[in-house]
Specification:
- The protein has helices at 2-15, 76-81, and strands spanning 24-38, 43-58, 63-74, 87-106, 109-126, 129-147, 152-162, 166-179.
- By secondary structure, the chain is mainly beta.
- The chain has an eight-stranded antiparallel barrel.
- A hairpin with a 3-residue loop joins strand 7 (152-162) and strand 8 (166-179).
- The longest helix has 14 residues, at 2-15.
Length: 183
Protein backbone atom coordinates (compact mmCIF):
# COMPACT_ATOMS: atom_id res chain seq x y z
CA UNK A 1 0.00 0.00 0.00
CA UNK A 2 2.85 2.39 0.83
CA UNK A 3 4.49 1.70 -2.53
CA UNK A 4 1.26 2.48 -4.38
CA UNK A 5 0.86 5.74 -2.42
CA UNK A 6 4.48 6.72 -3.15
CA UNK A 7 4.04 6.08 -6.89
CA UNK A 8 0.80 8.09 -6.90
CA UNK A 9 2.45 11.05 -5.16
CA UNK A 10 5.45 10.86 -7.47
CA UNK A 11 3.18 10.78 -10.54
CA UNK A 12 1.24 13.81 -9.33
CA UNK A 13 4.50 15.66 -8.70
CA UNK A 14 5.72 14.91 -12.21
CA UNK A 15 2.42 15.96 -13.78
CA UNK A 16 2.32 19.20 -11.81
CA UNK A 17 5.66 20.46 -13.13
CA UNK A 18 4.98 23.82 -14.77
CA UNK A 19 8.19 24.22 -16.76
CA UNK A 20 8.30 21.48 -19.38
CA UNK A 21 11.84 21.14 -20.63
CA UNK A 22 11.26 18.75 -23.58
CA UNK A 23 14.99 18.04 -23.61
CA UNK A 24 16.09 14.67 -24.92
CA UNK A 25 19.32 13.03 -23.81
CA UNK A 26 21.03 9.92 -25.09
CA UNK A 27 24.01 8.43 -23.29
CA UNK A 28 26.08 5.47 -22.35
CA UNK A 29 28.26 4.32 -19.49
CA UNK A 30 30.90 1.78 -18.64
CA UNK A 31 31.47 0.63 -15.10
CA UNK A 32 33.19 -1.83 -12.83
CA UNK A 33 31.86 -3.36 -9.64
CA UNK A 34 30.73 -6.44 -7.76
CA UNK A 35 27.99 -8.94 -8.43
CA UNK A 36 26.35 -11.53 -6.18
CA UNK A 37 24.13 -14.14 -7.79
CA UNK A 38 21.59 -16.26 -5.90
CA UNK A 39 20.66 -18.71 -8.61
CA UNK A 40 18.27 -21.62 -8.51
CA UNK A 41 21.05 -24.18 -8.27
CA UNK A 42 23.99 -22.28 -6.78
CA UNK A 43 25.41 -18.91 -5.71
CA UNK A 44 28.23 -17.10 -7.45
CA UNK A 45 30.02 -13.90 -6.45
CA UNK A 46 32.62 -11.87 -8.27
CA UNK A 47 33.34 -8.71 -10.18
CA UNK A 48 31.65 -7.30 -13.24
CA UNK A 49 32.22 -4.96 -16.16
CA UNK A 50 28.91 -3.30 -17.01
CA UNK A 51 27.75 -1.32 -20.05
CA UNK A 52 24.61 0.80 -20.14
CA UNK A 53 22.91 2.80 -22.89
CA UNK A 54 19.95 5.06 -22.22
CA UNK A 55 17.50 7.63 -23.53
CA UNK A 56 16.08 10.29 -21.19
CA UNK A 57 13.21 12.67 -21.78
CA UNK A 58 13.19 15.62 -19.39
CA UNK A 59 9.69 16.44 -18.15
CA UNK A 60 10.91 19.60 -16.40
CA UNK A 61 14.24 21.29 -15.80
CA UNK A 62 15.06 18.85 -12.99
CA UNK A 63 12.98 15.70 -13.55
CA UNK A 64 12.79 13.16 -16.34
CA UNK A 65 11.98 9.61 -17.39
CA UNK A 66 14.74 7.31 -18.60
CA UNK A 67 14.73 4.02 -20.49
CA UNK A 68 17.92 2.04 -20.75
CA UNK A 69 19.53 -1.31 -21.36
CA UNK A 70 22.30 -2.71 -19.15
CA UNK A 71 24.60 -5.58 -20.08
CA UNK A 72 27.33 -6.97 -17.87
CA UNK A 73 30.11 -9.51 -18.24
CA UNK A 74 32.39 -11.24 -15.76
CA UNK A 75 35.47 -9.39 -14.61
CA UNK A 76 38.87 -10.97 -14.05
CA UNK A 77 38.16 -11.98 -10.44
CA UNK A 78 34.89 -13.69 -11.42
CA UNK A 79 36.92 -16.13 -13.48
CA UNK A 80 38.75 -17.17 -10.31
CA UNK A 81 35.64 -17.38 -8.11
CA UNK A 82 33.84 -19.48 -10.73
CA UNK A 83 36.49 -22.16 -10.10
CA UNK A 84 35.10 -22.44 -6.54
CA UNK A 85 31.46 -22.50 -7.63
CA UNK A 86 29.58 -25.01 -9.73
CA UNK A 87 27.78 -22.15 -11.56
CA UNK A 88 29.68 -20.14 -14.17
CA UNK A 89 27.79 -16.91 -14.92
CA UNK A 90 28.67 -15.66 -18.39
CA UNK A 91 26.54 -12.50 -18.53
CA UNK A 92 23.44 -10.71 -17.37
CA UNK A 93 21.46 -7.77 -18.61
CA UNK A 94 18.12 -6.35 -19.51
CA UNK A 95 16.02 -3.24 -19.93
CA UNK A 96 15.33 -0.72 -17.19
CA UNK A 97 12.92 2.17 -16.67
CA UNK A 98 13.76 4.94 -14.22
CA UNK A 99 12.60 8.28 -12.89
CA UNK A 100 15.44 10.81 -13.00
CA UNK A 101 15.88 13.80 -10.72
CA UNK A 102 18.71 16.30 -10.40
CA UNK A 103 19.80 18.94 -7.93
CA UNK A 104 21.79 21.76 -9.61
CA UNK A 105 24.97 22.83 -7.81
CA UNK A 106 25.99 25.54 -10.28
CA UNK A 107 25.59 26.20 -14.01
CA UNK A 108 26.29 22.86 -15.70
CA UNK A 109 26.99 20.94 -12.47
CA UNK A 110 24.37 18.76 -10.81
CA UNK A 111 23.89 15.84 -8.48
CA UNK A 112 21.39 13.28 -9.74
CA UNK A 113 19.45 10.19 -8.72
CA UNK A 114 17.67 7.53 -10.76
CA UNK A 115 15.05 5.26 -9.19
CA UNK A 116 13.61 2.50 -11.29
CA UNK A 117 12.91 -1.10 -12.11
CA UNK A 118 15.01 -3.46 -14.22
CA UNK A 119 14.51 -6.84 -15.80
CA UNK A 120 17.52 -9.00 -14.90
CA UNK A 121 18.20 -11.84 -17.32
CA UNK A 122 21.08 -14.11 -16.21
CA UNK A 123 22.78 -16.66 -18.46
CA UNK A 124 24.97 -19.23 -16.75
CA UNK A 125 26.39 -22.69 -17.19
CA UNK A 126 26.31 -25.41 -14.56
CA UNK A 127 27.92 -28.81 -15.12
CA UNK A 128 28.24 -27.87 -18.82
CA UNK A 129 24.47 -27.31 -19.10
CA UNK A 130 23.27 -23.82 -20.05
CA UNK A 131 20.65 -22.19 -17.82
CA UNK A 132 18.77 -18.92 -17.83
CA UNK A 133 16.93 -17.15 -15.02
CA UNK A 134 15.20 -13.79 -15.05
CA UNK A 135 13.52 -11.57 -12.47
CA UNK A 136 12.34 -7.98 -12.11
CA UNK A 137 14.15 -5.93 -9.49
CA UNK A 138 15.21 -2.47 -8.37
CA UNK A 139 17.75 -0.21 -10.08
CA UNK A 140 19.05 2.78 -8.10
CA UNK A 141 21.74 5.22 -9.22
CA UNK A 142 23.31 8.39 -7.81
CA UNK A 143 26.02 10.56 -9.28
CA UNK A 144 27.46 13.87 -10.42
CA UNK A 145 27.04 15.35 -13.89
CA UNK A 146 28.90 18.11 -15.72
CA UNK A 147 26.99 19.45 -18.75
CA UNK A 148 28.80 21.71 -21.26
CA UNK A 149 27.24 24.48 -23.40
CA UNK A 150 27.27 22.30 -26.53
CA UNK A 151 25.02 19.70 -24.85
CA UNK A 152 27.75 17.16 -24.15
CA UNK A 153 28.05 15.91 -20.61
CA UNK A 154 30.13 13.60 -18.45
CA UNK A 155 28.91 11.67 -15.42
CA UNK A 156 30.45 9.76 -12.56
CA UNK A 157 28.10 7.57 -10.55
CA UNK A 158 27.20 4.56 -8.48
CA UNK A 159 24.59 1.95 -9.43
CA UNK A 160 22.87 -0.56 -7.16
CA UNK A 161 20.68 -3.26 -8.72
CA UNK A 162 18.83 -5.87 -6.70
CA UNK A 163 16.42 -8.72 -7.37
CA UNK A 164 15.94 -12.19 -5.94
CA UNK A 165 18.69 -13.56 -8.24
CA UNK A 166 21.13 -10.64 -8.42
CA UNK A 167 22.73 -7.94 -6.30
CA UNK A 168 25.08 -5.59 -8.16
CA UNK A 169 27.20 -2.65 -6.99
CA UNK A 170 28.82 -0.69 -9.79
CA UNK A 171 30.86 2.52 -10.12
CA UNK A 172 30.75 4.04 -13.59
CA UNK A 173 31.75 6.88 -15.88
CA UNK A 174 29.36 8.03 -18.58
CA UNK A 175 29.03 10.36 -21.53
CA UNK A 176 25.71 11.84 -22.64
CA UNK A 177 24.50 14.25 -25.30
CA UNK A 178 21.48 16.55 -24.92
CA UNK A 179 19.44 17.37 -27.99
CA UNK A 180 17.95 20.81 -28.55
CA UNK A 181 14.65 21.44 -26.91
CA UNK A 182 11.66 20.59 -29.04
CA UNK A 183 9.37 23.46 -30.01
Amino acid sequence: MRLKTAFTLLSLTLLSQTAVANENIIGGSIGYGTQDFNLKYDANDGDTVAFDIYYRHMLSDHMGVEAGYTRSYDGIFSDFTSLLSSADVSSYGGPRLSLYGQYPLSHGNALYAKVGVAYHDVDYKMNNVKHNESKVGADLQVGWEKRFHNGMGINVGYQFADSSILTMNNFYVAQATAFNRLS
